[in-house]
Backbone:
């Protein structure tokens, strides 16, 4: 589907539901139509090095994967996969007289005031909420399927190298200083892999790598009495099947980007109690390595999204914030990645 067609579909939803006006959110890989009590997510017909939504058949497959995988953590939110029908210049999710041209994931809309990122920005996240979140995350990690495979160091090096695909765009939109931070982060990651591959291999052997969420940042969490964790990675198994410590470091990094260092520490402590020391007593250098990588990935995503997001300025604010956090991490001891 194209942007103009999404507008037609949104108009049809308005006509049929007769509630409020539809609101459209766009990222670099999807559109989301918000209307009434529901949200409809449609995947863009795009192909990148990390995903392929280029055909309708593939988009249907990944819509179904999204529904299945997210039902592990947010079954109340993910409601089903629905075909999108076309007849002449009309598009609809309900009128099945036409031909199927695409698919949408239907979701229950959540209270945006409870989005963790917004609450962190307002300084309204309490210790009790973090304790509850740590419990849910630990329970999910304990039950997650162990991934039995050997570490692919070449693939890990490639992931670091791919971060530099946005270096010129970073320089253009945020300046030479920010592009230099990204370069330093990649150099740090490659050095760590060069001298510490045995540590990462041991994590694979010990069962620490599991089928997890893969994109665990504050924007993908609603802090209800029982937290709702949503929008896991469905389009690339390798990005979702990660070290449990990597996923924890991701969320802590994001919390620290809001300046919430004490809450980040509390999350780690509570999670550690529930998971046992064996899960989290890895070398400090490994934990720092994960935080640096995750901050760089988030910066990259925001820089890419700034080209298509409805709020370009906000995407660049987030990108700059992650890059500054990267700079802080790189300067912290142990700076030498051979630790």
Residues:
């Amino acid at each position: 589907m194209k942007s103009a067609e999404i507008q037609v579909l949104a108009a049809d939803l308005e006509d049929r539901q007769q509630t409020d006006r539809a609101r459209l959110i766009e990222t670099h890989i999807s559109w989301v139509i918000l209307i009434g009590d529901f949200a409809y997510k449609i995947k863009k017909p795009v192909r990148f090095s990390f995903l392929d939504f280029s055909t309708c058949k593939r988009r249907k497959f990944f819509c179904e994967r999204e529904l299945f995988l997210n039902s592990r953590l947010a079954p109340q939110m993910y409601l089903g996969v629905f075909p999108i029908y076309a007849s002449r210049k009309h598009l609809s999710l309900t009128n099945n007289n036409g031909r199927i041209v695409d698919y949408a994931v239907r979701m229950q809309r959540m209270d945006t005031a409870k989005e963790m990122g917004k609450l962190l920005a307002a300084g309204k996240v309490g210790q009790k909420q973090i304790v509850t979140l740590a419990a849910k995350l630990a329970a999910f990690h304990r039950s997650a399927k162990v991934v039995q495979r050997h570490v692919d160091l070449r693939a890990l090096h490639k992931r670091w190298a791919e971060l530099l695909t946005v270096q010129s765009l970073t320089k253009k939109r945020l300046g030479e200083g920010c592009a230099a931070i990204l370069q330093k982060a990649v150099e740090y990651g490659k050095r760590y892999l060069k001298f510490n591959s045995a540590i990462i291999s041991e994590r694979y052997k010990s069962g620490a790598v599991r089928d997890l969420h893969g994109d665990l940042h504050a924007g993908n969490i609603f802090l209800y009495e029982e937290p709702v964790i949503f929008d896991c990675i469905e389009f690339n198994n390798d990005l979702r099947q990660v070290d449990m410590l990597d996923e924890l470091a991701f969320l802590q990094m994001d919390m620290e980007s809001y300046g919430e260092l004490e809450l980040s520490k509390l999350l780690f402590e509570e999670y550690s109690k529930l998971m046992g020391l064996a899960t989290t007593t890895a070398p400090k250098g490994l934990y720092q390595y994960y935080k640096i990588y995750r901050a760089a990935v988030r910066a990259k995503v925001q820089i890419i999204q700034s080209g298509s997001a409805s709020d370009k300025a906000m995407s660049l604010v987030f990108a700059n914030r992650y890059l500054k956090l990267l700079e802080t991490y790189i300067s912290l001891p142990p700076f030498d990645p051979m630790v």
Observations:
- The chain has 13 helices and twelve strands.
- Residues 335-339 have pLDDT under 50 and may be disordered.
